[in-house]
Amino acid sequence: MNHKTYDYIIVGGGSAGCVLAHRLSADPAASVLLLEAGAGDRHPFFHWPAGFAKMTKGIGSWGWSTVPQRHLGGRALRFTQAKVIGGGSSINAQIYTRGHPSDYDTWADEDGARGWGYEDVLPYFRRAEDNERYANRYHGEGGPLGVSNPISPLPICEAFFRAGQVMGIPFNPDFNGERQAGLGYYQLTQRQARRSSTATAYLHPVRARANLAVTLQAQATRVLVERGRAVGVEFADRGSQLQQVRARREVIVASGAIGSPRLLMLSGIGPADHLRTVGIDVVHALPGVGGNLQDHLDLFVIAECTGDHTYDKYNKPHHAAWAGLQYLLWRKGPVASSLFETGGFWHADGQAGAPGAAPDIQFHLGLGSGIEAGVAKMRHAGVTLNSAYLRPRSRGTVRLASADPKAAPLIDPNYWAVPEDRVQALKGLKLARELLRQAPLARYVRSELLPGPGMITDEDLFRYACAHAKTDHHPVGTCRIGAEHDPAAVVTPALKVLGMDGLRVVDASVMPRVPSCNTNAPTIMVAERAADLILGRIPDVVAEVAAEGSPT
Prior knowledge:
Helix content: 10-25%
Largest sheet: 7 strands, mixed
CATH superfamily of the largest domain: FAD/NAD(P)-binding domain
Distance between the termini: 48 Å
CATH architecture of the largest domain: 3-Layer(bba) Sandwich
CATH class of the largest domain: Alpha Beta
Structural class: alpha/beta
Number of strands: 24
Strand content: 15-25%
Radius of gyration: 23 Å
Number of helices: 13
Shape: globular
């Protein structure tokens, strides 16, 4: 059995893990091992922007689903989680959004996440960025992550903006700047018309470092714990043989909002009663592990177009061949599109309300129909408008089905357990329907096909949602930051696992509440800040408070 030793072992080569590998290995005196359960990202779909459309159908993912959702008619939803180097950043729609400043201030002021307020995290958003358009208080240049503008927007996008203005929704050129509300083009994690994942932006440029080892197709089975300290990791290699590696300084779990609590529980760290139920010895009872699961639930409208105003025609072989040629020769056309590069943020009640009020609905305009797995495809060219309620109060869980590391976890987002979530989500769906009916879109949109003109009442729309709602792929919260006395907390503000030494969690699972946006950029920010915490470049506020309260 392998017993190699490293200073840092990072479990999970996703959006957070690749950032950590880059930053921690910058010190040539520190040895770093990155373990990733998935394979490499050589397939072109991982690099072509439009490859996102293939990602929700299984490539580079675990293939998991939720448990039947009690408040959605008992339906189980496909729940794509990445299984490839770069994680979610290698398979997502490349939308670069950060949420509203109040998201982070709420973490700090109400959720016990001291040091994670907006002004604390903004420098880490900026440090990550190499922004094509902006260099100001809100944006950075020269960072690893390419952030750019859509290359080949279609005329229907501009009509969508005008439709919003008819409804009082302003055009917004930068959702990550002075204000979040409005419609506009999303900035994208792309560079030169190729996806800028954390694998391509952070990891691949430093793979040659002598102090950095990367092991792919290595599924962690447990964290090794001795006398209350994490000392290493056991993993199954590509031949299913168990290997062990040791950590001199820290084990850092960065396996995502589903994978991280799963690994902790497989290691005997989590809710004691649940662990005993599945036959796992309790190493460290920590009831918050796997709780507090939050996600954005997506409701969509699909309309038939009056002509080929979207990218649906490129599903036909001769058009697909032309699209490929456009991309190879000029880096333009549908292959260079993320397909969801237009959208915005607004209020469920249909009006701005108080100045500076945070939006609670997000729109994504899909330039086609049937783009994502499980979403209906139309016979003729179509356009999709997704809506999601951004501030859900419902909380779910991640649990183990058994002690077998190969078994899929039990994922229960518990969508709409709080009735207010359903009310607000249906308001967002109604806004989406109204937007597509506005006069500026009449030239492009013939008629609504889903939900359809016969779906009028809230009960009609609820039935529609039960049949068609999908995840927005934004799970967070299952190892959340909190105060030491908070029974639901899993990690301190320094991301150290409560009650243990040598173990941190660094990924979307530590977020106390889901931010009001796509979650890739916030996850990268978490990892950027975590690197400084690990390297001692910013103080551990919990340790400071303890020192202040100790006798002199």
